[in-house]
Structures are given as C-alpha cells and as structure tokens.
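We give the entry.
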Amino acid sequence: MRVRAVAILVLLLLSLVVVAQNTEVVSVQLLFWNLQMSRIILLALTLAVGVIVGFLLGRPWRRRDRTAGSTPPVEDDS
C-alpha cells in the first residue's frame, strides 16, 4: 500500500507541475460555445473529469440481490 501512495503522490505532483507551467489564455470551442479561459483552468478541469471518471469506472459495483428483503420461499413437503 505504501508504494501505491507514493505513486499517487508522484503523479499528483507531476500533474501540478504541468498545470502550473501552462498559464496562457486559450480559446476553447465546444459545439456552439466559444470560451476563453486560462490553460491552467482547462487542464485542471480535464484532470478533475478524468479522476471522477476513473473513480466511477474503477469502483466495484455491487448488484442488489433480487430476493433481498423478501420472505424466503415456502418449501412444499408433498
């Protein structure tokens, strides 16, 4: 677990260095919107979306038991 924490910390620091070195204003065109924002904000937003998507895709989904909460079936002794 220690190696994983160090790897995450290194990736986070590298991401912050990349974001800090890109402060120019850029034009972003998305469908019919045309936005101008700092590249640092664009990269931070992209990083945040990537982290959220990665968390959601990596999260183990538990299926609900369809019989949960219902009464157990009655056994027929015939």
Observations:
- Helices lie at 2-20, 39-58.
- Residues 17-58 form one domain.
- DSSP finds two helices and two strands in the chain.
